[in-house]
Design goal:
Structural class: alpha+beta
Order of helices and strands: EEEEEEEEEEEHHHHHHHH
Mean pLDDT: 81
Distance between the termini: 22 Å
């Protein structure tokens, strides 16, 4: 296994990076501790972080997992707090919060192999003219090329609704103003539409998120060239973001944010939980409201709040994994 596959990086909000290195020779699971204390393997200079706040475990196959170490303020993954003894797999773009410190995960050697599909706990929101055969990896692009006006229309609307917010968010991070960011998104959508008759997504050649990022960057570069014709494109100055790591980090942030938003919406509208349970999950599991306060506000027992939070968190994470498998 190459060196890069045994390293995970934690990107702070200011862009600085903390590397967690694991010995390449080790084939057994290996653990590194992140915290404020000098005995931690990775030190976070934040008084709200516990001395030993959370651990990162790397397995022999190149996958990464996080577990909270009974910290004072807890650890959250993708804005959902971890339960005691709960261990969650992390991938590039995932967000970790410990104390007041926000971190983004970057895996230079890749995220490792996919997990076997879990039994789904939620049902997909029903939509007319969408059939199960399309719920496969790359299904959106399959549907974009599907025969039949109705299927094509539904596929494009789904495609547009999913990815326009992602593209506009990334363009804004890259320095585009609101109107320009919207123009970039519409141009990317138009390019996909024009190419849909001949375009085939091949997962073996790369993940769909990479295809979409390249299409977005190409659209932004084209617009930037028109505005600044004297710019030397090869010098890497055609975009406000000049550092490749910055570009990748910004894209990963927006991709993960978009993924989480869609997963939350899917679970919320699945009808698998009551409004009271969802409110308990939002208050206790996502906003960090003390459980006694949530209990008083909702009239729920603490154990019921914990159960609702754990159940819905599990459903959301399963939906995130389903979307990742579908889109590559």
């Amino acid at each position: 296994m190459p060196d890069s596959s045994r390293r995970v990086e934690l990107v702070l909000s200011d862009g600085s990076r903390l590397s967690v290195h694991f010995p390449v020779s080790g084939r057994a699971d290996q653990v590194m501790v992140v915290g404020r204390g000098h005995d931690a393997d990775v030190i976070l200079p934040d008084d709200t972080v516990s001395r030993r706040h959370f651990q990162i475990r790397g397995d022999a196959e190149g996958r990464w997992f996080v577990r909270d170490l009974e910290s004072r303020s807890g650890t959250s993954i993708n804005w959902m707090s971890l339960d005691p003894e709960e261990e969650i797999r992390i991938r590039s773009g995932d967000r970790i919060r410990s104390g007041q410190t926000d971190l983004m995960v970057a895996c230079p050697g890749g995220d490792g192999p996919n997990d076997p599909p879990a039994d789904a706990e939620i049902e997909e929101p029903s939509a007319p003219t969408v059939v199960d055969e399309f719920q496969t990896r790359g299904s959106l692009l399959i549907r974009l090329n599907a025969e039949g006006t109705d299927e094509r229309e539904v596929g494009w609307q789904d495609f547009y609704d999913r990815y326009v917010p992602l593209i506009t968010g990334f363009a804004r991070r890259a320095g585009a103003k609101d109107e320009e960011a919207e123009d970039v998104a519409h141009e990317v959508m138009a390019n996909f539409f024009r190419a849909s008759e001949r375009f085939e997504y091949n997962p073996d050649a790369g993940r769909f998120r990479g295809y979409l990022k390249a299409a977005t960057l190409n659209a932004m570069r084209a617009r930037w060239r028109k505005q600044r014709p004297m710019v030397d494109i090869d010098a890497g100055t055609d975009l406000p973001i000049e550092d490749r790591c910055d570009v990748d980090d910004a894209w990963d942030r927006e991709w993960t944010r978009n993924l989480i938003s869609r997963a939350l919406a899917s679970v919320r509208h699945s009808g698998k939980q009551s409004e009271q349970s969802w409110e308990a999950f939002e208050l206790y599991g996502r906003r960090g409201v003390p459980i006694d306060e949530v209990s008083d506000r909702l009239g729920m027992k603490p154990d019921a709040i914990r159960q609702a939070k754990s159940r819905i968190s599990r459903q959301v994470r399963q939906e995130i994994e389903r979307l990742r498998a579908e889109e590559g």
